[in-house]
Amino acid sequence: MFKLDYKAPCTYLLPKQGPMRVPGLVIASEKLLEQEGMEEPLRQVHNVATLQGIIGHSIAMPDMHWGYGFPIGGVAAMDAKEGVISPGGVGYDINCGVRLATIKRPFSEFSESSKSKLINRLFTLIPSGVGHGHQGQALLDSDYRQLFQKGARWAIEQGFGNAHDLDFMENYGVIGGSDFSAVSAVAKERGKRQLGSIGSGNHFVEIGEIEKIFFPQVASEWGIEKGETYVLIHSGSRGLGHQVCQDTLEKYIREGYAKDLIDRQLVAASINSPQGQEYFAAMAAAANYAFNNRQKILHQVRIAFSEVCDLPLEQVKLLYDVCHNIAKFEDHLVNGQMKKLCVHRKGATRAFGPGHPELSPLFQKTGQPVIVPGDMKRASHLLVGSGNPLTWCSCCHGAGRARSRAQSMKVWGGKNLEEKLAKEGISIRASSERTIAEEMPDAYKDVDDVVDAVEEAKLAKKVARLKPSLVIKG
Hints:
Shape: globular
Largest sheet: 8 strands, mixed
CATH superfamily: tRNA-splicing ligase RtcB
Radius of gyration: 21 Å
Number of strands: 19
Number of helices: 13
Distance between the termini: 35 Å
CATH class: Alpha Beta
Helix content: 25-40%
Structural class: alpha+beta
Strand content: 25-35%
């Protein structure tokens, strides 16, 4: 087991050793560190610290668990001139992310009949499951050229939302530097019917009530109140993003970039090389696809509330949309000087604090909303970023798995899980019984423990706790 040194509350150092270029930094409580399965993600923290051009620390968040190359819950900043960019540091589901919308109506005021109709309508409108998408008109190359460049603005121009939504998205819903030609024909084929769909695994649409307010001042600034209704959407770039990652990994390995690495899954290219620039351009295109995907899902949520609950579309208000599988160029203070870094966040969320120049004016005073989904029974959380430079202004992205999908399936497979969850106040629709078994609440760490850890480590502050009730799973 790797030995960690205590640094500060919920903050531990993995000392620099062997080929590590920088120390590791682990954000977690003692309780979380004592859970099973910590050895593998800590080994990956060690391995990431060996990459060329890494600055500061190889970082893991309290929701960390084993991933491809990088741990899920991993953060690594690379020198933009001398460092590398790693597809494993972004992940297969490029710009997997979450968005939170609120409705100025108490959730308790919706009748049971309305809730039942609502979840059924949402399940009809929003495709879910492996490979599933819409059967309507497929995206053309002309569409791809526009949406890769414009990000979420393209979906809004197609009638899915309004321009005001862009103010409530990370980077205003677009990552610059995309290139249509960097995305393979296979990737575009996979994604051509998947805009507006959830996908599989832990992706979802969740509806419930804002159960508790922790930080009334920020909650008031954001216009949220205890008891009102919320909608949480978790999805990413679907098959298109997966293929971009796969194409790049295969190319890098074929061209010898994995040679001499401590783990070939960390295969990477110099950021400024043609290969590195090509991956970034394809990744940015996939990220912009994901922004469009979540924008279209939100529009379908608005349609469902309009049809079932006679609620005007504009009353389903977007609060924020955050990425948690992305590599982005950001300016950070390094040894007293501003330096451009390529920050990899894999299963981690940007958490800029008050006054950060990249935030829209709406969040300059408070800091950035940070959305942390939990599981479909206990809770999700809304936090506000503190802008902690130790983690390059990063925070956790969710509860993090405590049990693998195979383990959860072994425990829950074959049982009537919809009935069990209904008794606990959760109405669920899913593409398969297997999905429900794999995603049962005890497959995840307790999200309350995770957000308590990031608050103690001063990465973000709790604003509100969200209680799920209606859930659609991939």
